[in-house]
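=== Structure Prediction Worksheet ===
Name of assembly: unnamed complex
Input type: mixed (protein and possibly other molecules)
Chain count: two
Listed entries:
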Amino acid sequence: MSLGVVVFPGSNCDRDVQWAAEGCLGIKTRFLWHEERDLSGLDAVVIPGGFSYGDYLRCGAIARFAPVLQEVAAFAERGGRVLGICNGFQVLTEMGLLPGALTRNQKLHFICEPTNLRVEPGPCSWLQGYTSGEVVNFPIAHGEGRYQADPELLKQLGDSGQVVLRYCNNPNGSVGDVAGVSNTQGNVLGLMPHPERACDPTTGGVDGRRLLASLIG
Amino acid sequence: MPLFSARVLVSLRPSVLDPAGEATRAAAARLGVDGVSKLRIGKAVEVELDAPDEQSARAQLELLSDRLLANPVIENWILELKDDSSAGA
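=== Predicted Assembly ===
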């Protein structure tokens, strides 16, 4: 098992993901600089949090054109597992790999706090270690995490099991309390909360472990 | 090749909440400007582009607006195009 972690200029959770995966779970990781095009030997790819390319224009709008992401898109198309956390989720929506968009938090504040999330039933392979209806606690840390989708799309996503995580107490005004969505096949997951910051008992809970541990069964 | 100047106006779609606009509207009242019933914030992007003709310039600018400057999931855009070549630019 080998995990690629994308690094853009401005990424700041790349090492957190590495520590969670490699330090806590023993999953080998390889950093993928934004200009890299070689994904050979990788079983999964994480697009981590941060402020890719300064988040100029819109969060994820410029990152979307990074060479590495052309390869990640092809990787996902072949069924490869891709996880976008926070800024990574924003990037995946900008790329069109996931539906909807992330917008400014309803009350404008940057929110950094532990958050309870409910796991919803769905085909997402990243969440196979959790039971449907289970409540888990991951930290959030974002200013632009308000999920936006029109009512028709939101209903469609709910019906197809693509809304895989919902906030128990909606912190940012996301429609439908949406905290994470997957693609229809379930191999691509994007979420605003940070599972990689809930893996090491010395820094809080370990509810995030099972998400990354899904890679090693 | 003629130089074309354009301005692309990007705005949040009406159905999308604009909390920054709402905060600014509240400040307008504190300034003493009453009666502001709507205030929504967008972006104006100024672009200069070399293109063989206006049709080609428009096509390129529309692609730019729709695929990069705006995210059509949450934003609308308007393209204002003018040809600078006649002004000797």
